[in-house]
Amino acid sequence: MAGEPVNVNEFEELVRQVLLKVYYDFFAGRAEDQYKLKENIEAFHRIIIRPRNLVDVSRINMSTIILGHRTSAPIIVAPTSSHQLAHPEGEVATARGAAACNIIMGLAFTSTCTLEEVASSCKAVCFIQTAFKRDITANMVQRAERNGFRAIILTADTPRLGRKEADIRNKMISPPFRNFEGLISTELASDKGSNVEAYAAETLDPSFCWKDIAWLKSITKLPILIKEFLIVLYFAATKAIEAGVAGIIVSNHGARQLDYTPASISVQFKEQKVVHAVQGKVPVLLDGGIRRGTDIFKALALGAKAVLIGRPVIYGLAAKGETGVKQVIEMLKNELEQTMALAGCCTLDDITRSHVVTEKERFLCRM
Prior knowledge:
Elements: H1 8-18, H2 21-28, H3 35-45, E1 48-49, E2 64-66, E3 69-71, E4 75-77, H4 90-100, E5 104-107, H5 115-121, E6 126-130, H6 134-146, E7 151-155, H7 165-170, H8 196-203, H9 211-218, E8 224-227, H10 234-242, E9 247-250, H11 264-270, H12 273-278, E10 284-287, H13 293-301, E11 307-309, H14 311-343, E12 356-357, H15 359-366
Parallel strand pairs: 4-5, 4-11, 5-6, 6-7, 7-8, 8-9, 9-10, 10-11
Antiparallel strand pairs: 1-12, 2-3
């Protein structure tokens, strides 16, 4: 690709050319037939923006408060694994980029830099992500508290690892996950040529269920966000609140777990069932398929408090390290600001349900 990227999709094309195929496939990969990732992105394309004209938009304010922390925009770096496969400085560079842009950094428990290294590297507001296995989870949470992390992102859809055929085909060997040192072997082997599933077997608990959230709350004072929450039924969102979670992140795990589940934006906001179910008691956030500032605008209009950005941040890191992370975040912020101005919204509170039309609504209007 000639020239500098001008949008986050062009960062992916750049990274496809410079990153080893096995690592590009690892980051870009998704489960089985790979339907879900495409649908994550295309579902946004089917939502139309309805702008308001003749509005004074000389001043645009994108700042918001997420779990008590003011950020420059409704964007969080999603917790994603193994950043050192993208760049030698790994999650440390990602966190510095997030801090420079004044947004929240989500750190995966399968990070290649330790949570202590990330915490000491900059002044980013950091959330720690964990799946569930009691001894490992307890260790991670206690260390996170000691090192100034501000919240826990609890992943809910990993009783076992999704089937990513590119990793199997490439015989993907994951780097040691150093957060697990002293807890499990960090040099796990597999007779299939890939150690990714071997790691999963050591760190995931297939018995994880609702009652375990109460246990997690009993060992930490940090607020808990539940992620990969795709259930749209009223009772499920209500049950999450009753369990004491501080927020819900609707996500399909970046299309990396169960294939043929709905797009995050479709589940979470088209019918606004989760948003209505929580009744403003906790924030609802969106993860999955965000590639443009217009996507962020649509998610906010349909009820999201903020969005999480995963692969685009990884692509920025792989291309240019910390600078690339900042460029990707600033691109999305600039596009969101442009969208808000052209749609007649000066603040995030001005973005309402009336600013978007879903595919279902367009169909009903034609009837």
